[in-house]
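Priority: medium. Attachment 1 of 2:
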C-alpha cells in the first residue's frame, strides 16, 4: 500500500442524447478504486468524486458543410520519397467549409481516429491499409497540423479559429493540404487510408 498524493488527469465529454436541449447544471457522482478491489481513499465514503457541470445551450453554432470530407490522394511510387524518413509525396489541396451562425466565436482542432492519443503531425493508417512505413500529414498554410490528443483542447494540438462577426449565417472556408509522409524504412506499397475527426469548441 502506498501513501501520499497522486495526480490523475481525467477528461469528461458531454454527449447529446436528445434534441430537446436546455441549459442547467447536473451532478455526477462516482467512486474511485484501485485495481477494482481497493478504495482510493480507505473506504467508500472517502473515495467519492463529485463532478458538477454547469451547461449553457448555445443556439448559434458551426458545423461542417460536408460532414464526411473525403480527400483522394494520388498514386505515388516508392521512389518519390527521396529523402528517407520525413520525406513527402502526393501533396493534395482541399478545404474545410464550416457553416457558422450569426456572431459565432468558436475554434476547432483535429484528432487522429486511428490513435486518439496521437500528438504528432502525422495521421496513422487505419485498419485495412496495406501500405507500411507511411502516414498522412495535414498542413494549413504550409505549416503542419499537430493533432489534438483525445479531441481535447489546450493540450498542444493545432487550433483554428471560427469567427463570424455577421448577423447572418456565413460559410468559413479554410484551406488545407494532405500528403503522404514516410515514417519508416523501407516504404512498402499498398493502400493508404487515414481518418481524422474535427472537434468544435465555443468560446
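Attachment 2 of 2:
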Amino acid at each position: 500500500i502506498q501513501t501520499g498524493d497522486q495526480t490523475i488527469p481525467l477528461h469528461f465529454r458531454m454527449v447529446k442524447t436528445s434534441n430537446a436541449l436546455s441549459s442547467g447544471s447536473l451532478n455526477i457522482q462516482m467512486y474511485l478504486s484501485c485495481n477494482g478491489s481497493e478504495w482510493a481513499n480507505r473506504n467508500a465514503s472517502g473515495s467519492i468524486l463529485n463532478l458538477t457541470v454547469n451547461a449553457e445551450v448555445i443556439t448559434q453554432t458551426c458545423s461542417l458543410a460536408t460532414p464526411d470530407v473525403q480527400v483522394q490522394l494520388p498514386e505515388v511510387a516508392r521512389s518519390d520519397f527521396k529523402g528517407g524518413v520525413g520525406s513527402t509525396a502526393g501533396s493534395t489541396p482541399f478545404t474545410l467549409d464550416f457553416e457558422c451562425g450569426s456572431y459565432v466565436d468558436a475554434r476547432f482542432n483535429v484528432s487522429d481516429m486511428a490513435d486518439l492519443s496521437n500528438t504528432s503531425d502525422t495521421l496513422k493508417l487505419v485498419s485495412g491499409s496495406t501500405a507500411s512505413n507511411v502516414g498522412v500529414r495535414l498542413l494549413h498554410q504550409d505549416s503542419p497540423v499537430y493533432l489534438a490528443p483525445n479531441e481535447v483542447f489546450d493540450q498542444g494540438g493545432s487550433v483554428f479559429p471560427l469567427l463570424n462577426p455577421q448577423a447572418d449565417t456565413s460559410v468559413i472556408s479554410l484551406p488545407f493540404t494532405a500528403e503522404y509522409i514516410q515514417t519508416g524504412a523501407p516504404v512498402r506499397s499498398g493502400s493508404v487510408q487515414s481518418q481524422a475527426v474535427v472537434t468544435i469548441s465555443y468560446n
